[in-house]
C-alpha cells in the first residue's frame, strides 16, 4: 500500500475512533436561526382514543440504558392507515427479527367500513399494539395522540426511551445502518433530531397544489416561510424531546402538515440539534451517487440508505418492494481496500 493511500485512509477512518463525531458525517441545523412560530390558530381539541396499546414496562425498563444491546433502547411509532393490514404484519415480522418489542401503530377509524372495523377488532385482540383514534383523519391529530400517550406511559415506567423512531408504515429500513447511526449518538443523547432536513420550507398558495396553505392556516408569506423542519416519513428523536414537545402543545400554532408541526412548532425553544441524514433517506426514483471523496464513508456504511420509500404504493406490492430494496442496498456494498485503490488511483492515470 502506498504512503499516499495509507495517509488518506488514516485521515478518513480516524473519526471512527472518537466517541462523538456526528458532525464529521452530517450537517447540523438549529431552530435558533429561525423566527418564533405563530401562536394561532391553535385548534385545540381533546382526542378520543378507541384502543390503547398494551406496553411491556418491565421488559423495556430492563433494557432502557443498554445502548449497545441492539435496539433495546429504541421505541418505534408507526403512522399507519386503517386498511394497511399487510404493512403492519410485515413490520411486526421485521421488528421481531431485530429483537424490538417496544412499538405501536397509530391509526384512525374515520370512515371505516364495517368489515375493516371487524378486522381491526381482531387485530387488536391478537396483537395489542394499536393506538386507535376515533374519527380524526388529519395526521397532526395522530401526532398529538402518540406524543401524549408515549409521554404518559413512560412517565409511569422509567422516563423516556433513549430514542423514538417515527416512521410511515410503508417504509423500508436498513437495520444495520440504523444501528450504527444510533450508536454514534452515544449512550445519553440529548436534544437530537435525525431526519431529512428541509432548511427553508416553501409556502404554496396554489389551491391546486397538494401542499396548499391558505393565509388563514399559515399567515407568513416570505420565501422559506415554513422555516426549518423534517420530511416526515422517518424521524428519530432523542427521548428527552417528547416532554418538551408535549409542553408546547397548547402554545404553538396548529397545522395539518404533521412533519412541520412536530419538528418545527412543537420543538421550538428546545435547543434541538437537527442532524441531516438526507443522503441516507431515499426513494425509488432517487439514486445516491458517490464520488471519490466519500467512498470511504460509504465503506463504513454511514452513507448507505437507512430508510426508503417506494411509491406509488399500488406499483410496489410487498414482494416487489423487497426486491427493489435489496437492489438498492446491493449498490452500496463495502469496498475492499484493493477495489478502493483501483477506483481512486487508476482513474487518475
TrEMBL record:
Pfam families: Galactosyl_T (PF01762). It is a single-pass type II membrane protein. Keywords: Glycosyltransferase, Golgi apparatus, Membrane, Signal-anchor, Transferase, Transmembrane, Transmembrane helix. The keyword DNA damage does not apply. This is Hexosyltransferase. It is found in: Golgi apparatus membrane. It comes from Meloidogyne graminicola. GO terms for biological process: protein O-linked glycosylation. Its EC number is 2.4.1.-. It is an enzyme of class 2 (transferase). One of its GO terms (molecular function) is hexosyltransferase activity. The keyword Membrane applies. Belongs to the glycosyltransferase 31 family. Its main location: Golgi. GO terms for cellular component: Golgi membrane.
Amino acid at each position: 500500500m502506498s504512503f499516499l493511500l495509507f495517509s488518506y485512509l488514516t485521515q478518513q477512518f480516524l473519526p471512527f475512533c472518537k466517541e462523538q463525531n456526528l458532525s464529521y458525517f452530517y450537517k447540523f441545523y438549529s431552530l435558533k436561526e429561525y423566527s418564533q412560530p405563530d401562536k394561532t390558530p391553535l385548534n385545540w381539541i381533546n382526542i378520543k382514543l378507541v384502543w390503547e396499546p398494551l406496553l411491556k414496562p418491565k421488559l423495556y425498563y430492563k433494557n432502557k440504558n443498554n445502548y449497545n444491546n441492539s435496539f433495546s433502547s429504541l421505541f418505534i411509532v408507526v403512522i399507519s392507515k386503517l386498511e394497511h393490514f399487510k404493512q403492519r404484519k410485515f413490520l411486526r415480522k421485521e421488528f421481531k427479527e431485530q429483537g424490538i418489542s417496544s412499538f405501536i401503530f397509530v391509526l384512525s377509524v374515520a370512515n371505516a367500513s364495517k368489515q375493516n372495523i371487524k378486522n381491526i377488532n381482531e387485530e387488536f385482540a391478537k396483537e395489542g399494539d394499536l393506538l386507535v383514534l376515533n374519527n380524526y383523519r388529519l395526521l397532526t391529530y395522530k401526532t398529538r395522540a402518540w406524543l401524549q400517550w408515549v409521554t404518559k406511559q413512560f412517565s409511569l415506567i422509567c422516563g423516556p426511551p433513549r430514542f423514538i423512531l417515527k416512521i410511515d408504515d410503508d417504509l423500508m429500513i436498513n437495520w444495520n445502518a440504523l444501528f450504527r447511526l444510533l450508536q454514534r449518538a452515544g449512550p445519553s443523547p440529548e436534544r437530537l433530531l435525525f431526519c431529512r432536513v428541509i432548511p427553508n420550507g416553501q409556502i404554496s398558495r396554489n389551491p391546486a397544489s397538494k401542499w396548499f396553505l391558505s393565509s388563514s392556516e399559515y399567515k407568513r408569506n416570505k420565501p422559506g416561510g415554513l422555516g426549518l423542519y423534517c420530511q416526515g416519513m422517518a424521524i428519530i428523536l432523542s427521548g428527552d424531546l417528547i416532554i418538551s414537545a408535549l409542553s408546547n402543545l397548547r402554545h404553538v400554532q396548529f397545522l395539518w402538515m404533521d412533519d412541520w408541526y412536530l419538528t418545527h412548532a412543537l420543538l421550538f425553544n428546545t435547543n434541538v440539534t437537527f442532524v441531516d441524514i438526507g443522503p441516507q433517506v431515499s426513494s425509488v426514483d432517487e439514486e445516491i451517487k458517490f464520488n471519490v471523496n466519500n467512498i470511504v464513508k460509504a465503506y463504513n456504511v454511514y452513507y448507505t440508505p437507512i430508510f426508503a420509500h417506494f411509491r406509488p404504493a399500488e406499483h410496489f406490492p410487498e414482494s416487489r418492494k423487497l426486491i427493489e430494496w435489496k437492489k438498492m442496498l446491493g449498490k452500496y456494498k463495502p469496498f475492499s481496500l484493493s477495489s478502493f485503490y483501483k477506483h481512486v488511483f487508476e482513474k487518475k492515470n
